[in-house]
TrEMBL record:
PANTHER family: BINDING OXIDOREDUCTASE, PUTATIVE (AFU_ORTHOLOGUE AFUA_1G17690)-RELATED, FAD-BINDING PCMH-TYPE DOMAIN-CONTAINING PROTEIN. Keywords: FAD, Flavoprotein, Oxidoreductase. It comes from the Bacteria. Belongs to the oxygen-dependent FAD-linked oxidoreductase family. This is FAD-binding oxidoreductase. It comes from Streptomyces johnsoniae. Residues 29-199 form the FAD-binding PCMH-type domain. Pfam families: BBE (PF08031), FAD_binding_4 (PF01565). Its cofactor is FAD. The keyword Membrane does not apply.
Length: 449
């Protein structure tokens, strides 16, 4: 059984609950730490950090486990924040205070009654804090920017175990780093205050095209994105659906090109904007319609059941016809690719610098390219990313996958000079690299363990 004390619920190998506590959504990473601390509040995090530092243990943080990096080993402690799900909304100020373990659906449920929306991701199942610290590119991003651009304050427990509230005024350098590079590298964020936006409804959903229309749909979408209002967010998923009862009948057993739409402008303007995509041909399924913002998760309809997946992401400078053809050759229906492929449209407000600078890099990226695969797929997804190098433009922290190979790509997630600045800040705030179970930023002049 777990022990309960000043550092929260403590689970050790062999204890009942240890395996459940150490396991996140993505099973590709197998955490086996010396012990796990199930934190119920900030005081538990403070105690866990101090205890781990006294014992010379590294520290990792696990909220939902959607963004795995490297496994926690026997020389580390894993702090889980999934019990810290509180959300408090100030509708007058249009802000929300969000606990470390809250998922986006917790935030959306709290804000929707006021006609307000956070800058959440495509899946309401994802943890809000980790998503935001990694940048946060969601369905309102082309209109308002990255989620990290609209953080007001962060409650942090750094390596010395002394909690502090970090803002642009109290500690501008650390505030800069945490927003865009703060996923577990500079301490444990126990809560954040974020801005909310007046979005109550969307014209959104999906157009699911069959294999025979894949090329036409992908070329049409790439051309369509060249001249769009910033209120229009969209993406494309290429996926071969299995022939199983859990899959909707029209999609079962088909390779599908899933165009996802989220228009947050005036509702009457949404349908004519989507018309060029509907003109591609008859879809297997068309779910695009007016919807309350609280149903935003239905647009991407992403899985909520745990599974092992090797993720990889690349930012693209553009998507000309040659790039579309290259992608089709490796990930289209004829390629029978053993992975799913996603493209997201960036640009708009993503490209503008925030009012308070942060560490989010590559703001001129036009698209992101993501692949997700069963570990048995081997290096097949890598071949797609290699083939797209002529249009590659760095990486994005939230889309980095697990393992040492992806960890080595971390510097490419930041603009030139910013990574060096981050290593110097790491030396200031975590010189012993206590927080190292992550895509690690080593202290300046040091190497990651």
């Amino acid at each position: 059984m777990s022990a309960t004390g000043p550092t929260g619920h403590v689970f050790r190998p062999g204890d009942e609950g240890y395996d459940a506590e150490r396991t996140g959504f993505n099973l590709a990473v197998d955490h086996r730490p010396a012990y796990v601390v199930g934190a119920g509040g900030s005081e538990d995090v403070v105690g866990a950090v101090r205890r781990a530092a006294d014992r010379g243990l590294g520290i990792g943080v696990l909220a939902t486990g959607h963004g795995p990096s490297v496994p926690a080993g026997e020389d580390t402690v894993l702090i889980t924040t999934g019990r810290m799900t509180g959300v408090t909304v100030d509708p007058g100020a249009r802000t929300a205070r969000v606990g470390a373990g809250a998922r986006w659906h917790h935030v959306i449920e709290a804000t929707a009654p006021y006609g307000l929306a956070p800058l959440n991701g495509s899946s309401p199942h994802v943890g809000a804090v980790g998503y935001t610290l990694g940048g946060g590119a969601g369905l309102l991003g082309r209109r308002y920017g990255y989620a990290a651009d609209h953080v007001r304050s962060l409650d942090l427990v750094p390596a010395d175990g002394t909690p502090r509230t970090v803002t642009a005024d109290t500690c501008p350098s650390l505030f800069w780093a945490l927003r865009g590079a703060g996923k577990g590298n500079f301490g444990v964020v126990t809560a954040m205050e974020i801005a909310l936006f007046p979005v109550a409804r969307l014209y959104g959903g999906g157009l699911y095209f069959p294999a025979g229309l894949c090329a036409d749909a992908l070329h049409a979408w790439a051309e369509w994105t060249r001249d769009l209002p910033e209120e229009m967010a969209s993406s494309v998923l290429l996926m071969a659906y299995p022939d199983v009862p859990e899959v909707p009948g029209p999609l079962r057993g088909h390779h599908v090109t899933h165009l996802r739409i989220a228009w947050s402008g005036p509702p009457a303007e949404g349908e004519p904007l989507v018309a060029p995509l509907r003109a591609v041909g008859t879809p297997l399924l068309d779910t695009v319609s007016d919807m309350p913002y609280r149903d935003v998760g239905a647009i991407h309809h992403e899985p909520t059941a745990s599974a092992a997946a090797h993720d990889r992401g690349t930012l693209l400078t553009g998507l000309p016809p040659a790039a579309v053809d290259t992608l089709l050759a490796t990930a289209g229906p004829a390629a029978r690719a053993p992975f799913v492929t996603e493209l997201r449209h960036f640009g708009g407000a993503y490209a503008r610098p925030p009012r308070v600078p942060n560490a989010v890099g590559h703001r001129t990226a036009a698209f992101s390219l993501y692949t997700g695969a069963d570990p048995a797929a081997g290096d097949a997804p890598d071949r797609l990313h290699v083939s797209m190098r002529p249009w590659s433009g760095g990486s994005f922290l939230n889309f980095l996958g697990s393992g040492e190979t992806e960890a080595s790509r971390l510097p490419a997630a930041f603009d030139p000079g910013d990574y060096a600045r981050l290593t110097e800040l790491k030396r200031t705030y975590d010189p012993a690299n206590v927080f190292r179970v992550n895509h690690n930023i080593p202290p300046g002049g040091a190497l990651s363990p």
